[in-house]
Design brief:
Elements: E1 9-13, E2 21-24, E3 37-46, H1 49-56, E4 65-66, E5 70-78, E6 93-97, E7 106-110, E8 114-116, H2 130-141, E9 160-165, H3 170-181, E10 185-190, H4 195-200, E11 205-208, H5 214-222, E12 226-232, H6 236-249, E13 255-258, E14 273-274, H7 287-290, H8 300-306, E15 316-318, H9 327-340, H10 342-353, E16 365-369
Parallel strand pairs: 9-10, 9-12, 10-11, 12-13, 13-14, 15-16
Antiparallel strand pairs: 1-2, 1-4, 3-5, 3-7, 3-16, 5-6, 6-8
Family: Belongs to the zinc-containing alcohol dehydrogenase family.
Protein name: Chaperonin 10-like protein
Pfam families: ADH_N
Length: 371
């Protein structure tokens, strides 16, 4: 029997600094999936901060490319007898991530980077988790980074703390939950407006990152016991600088990992143990994510979601426009959030919901549904 031929559209990025264009793209054929790929018919896409950055900046891609990482949908095809077929079957509802290539109708995804969606959970909910869960897990549990113990249901308390700088960000929201589930006490930073949100994710202590005395206050908090490390989850270069100041002020020699590459290593204080690979030693995508699958898509995450002990964070903000036609709108709205921060979230919520967001707004992640 000839393999199925599916009409597929994608949002093409023809070069940097321009908007995406919807055009045809040949879908991956069933006989091209191999041992570890699953073809997913996408029902929801989530927008990440990196999506607008990759659209705006010259990243050296061989254009045209298809951007987008977070997807949720239904398994359309899997190779019979493959490793993927041992875990997934046609019709399964799944969520997960791909290293770009997500903004299209049909996506071939690594079976180690997707999980089944619990019954009763809509596609729009877990689609927000993919990239930010994988990113936080890489820097928290990767052997080249903080190398913490993996999360598990009922993990005993370690009696150690971990600082998550940028706790209300997408990466931070998931880092707090994963680290807490591994038995560590999470101390986090965010704006005052987000204290309740971050505490609700499991942080035992929260500090205002804008407090002029935050460095000394955090160092004193960490030095009340043993600190297992610091993760800079959000803040780019400024976040790195602020977070490693805390590490330098501690009486302990602390491990430090960042979701934003540190290109000014000569400025890092000598008593900070930075865990970062040289570019030549980076593990390629998607292979770099596979090491943490026990903490993410093939271990703790689906179990915790099914048992209702893992929160969908940041919560989805669904754009009213549907399908791939809404992707560029989502990227533009994410750019507003990226450039304006808290004020941008308030503006975007107002635009999407058509109403005033009020004075107090919590973090959100933009989501587009197929229909």
């Amino acid at each position: 029997m000839a393999p199925a031929v599916r009409a597929n559209k994608a949002v093409w990025q023809d070069t940097f600094g321009v908007k995406g264009e919807i055009r045809d793209r040949a879908a991956t054929n069933d006989d091209e999936l191999g041992d570890h790929k699953v073809l997913v018919k996408v029902e929801a896409w989530a927008i990440n901060p990196c999506d607008y950055m990759l659209q705006d900046r010259n990243m050296g891609f061989a254009y045209p490319v298809v951007l987008g990482c977070d997807v949720a949908g239904t398994v359309e095809a899997v190779t019979p007898g493959s490793s993927a077929a041992a875990k997934f079957k046609v019709g399964d509802r799944v969520f997960g991530m791909t290293a770009n290539n997500g903004f299209q109708d049909y996506v071939a995804v690594e079976d180690r980077l997707i999980s089944k969606i619990p019954d009763g959970m809509a596609f729009r909910e877990p689609v927000v988790l993919g990239l930010c869960v994988a990113t936080s897990a890489l820097f928290l549990f990767g052997e080249d980074y903080l190398n913490l113990s993996y999360p598990k249901i009922g993990a005993p308390k370690k009696g150690k703390s971990v600082l998550v700088w940028g706790g209300s960000s997408a990466v931070g929201s998931n880092a707090i939950q994963l680290t807490t589930a591994a038995g560590y006490d999470v101390i986090a930073t965010c704006s005052k407006n987000n204290f309740d949100y971050v505490k609700g994710l499991g942080a035992v202590a929260v500090f205002d990152y804008k407090d002029p005395d935050v460095t000394e206050k955090l160092a004193a908090e960490l030095d009340k016991g043993e600190c297992a490390g610091i993760l800079m989850a959000a803040g780019l270069k400024d976040g790195n600088l602020a977070a490693w100041k805390v590490a330098a002020a501690s009486k302990q020699k602390l491990k430090f990992a960042s979701s934003s590459y540190i290109d000014n290593m000569d400025e890092v204080p000598k008593n900070v143990d930075v865990k970062q690979l040289a570019p030549a030693n980076f593990k390629p995508m998607p292979d770099c994510w596979f090491e943490m699958k026990e903490a993410t898509f093939e271990g703790y995450l689906p179990e915790a979601l099914a048992k209702g002990v893992y929160k969908i964070a940041p919560p989805p903000l669904v754009i009213s426009k549907k399908g791939l036609e809404a992707v560029q709108e989502g990227i533009d709205l994410q750019r507003i959030i990226g450039e304006k921060g808290q004020a941008g979230i308030k503006e975007v919520i107002g635009r999407v919901k058509g109403a005033n967001a009020g004075d107090k707004v919590s973090p959100v992640k933009l989501v587009i549904e197929r229909a």
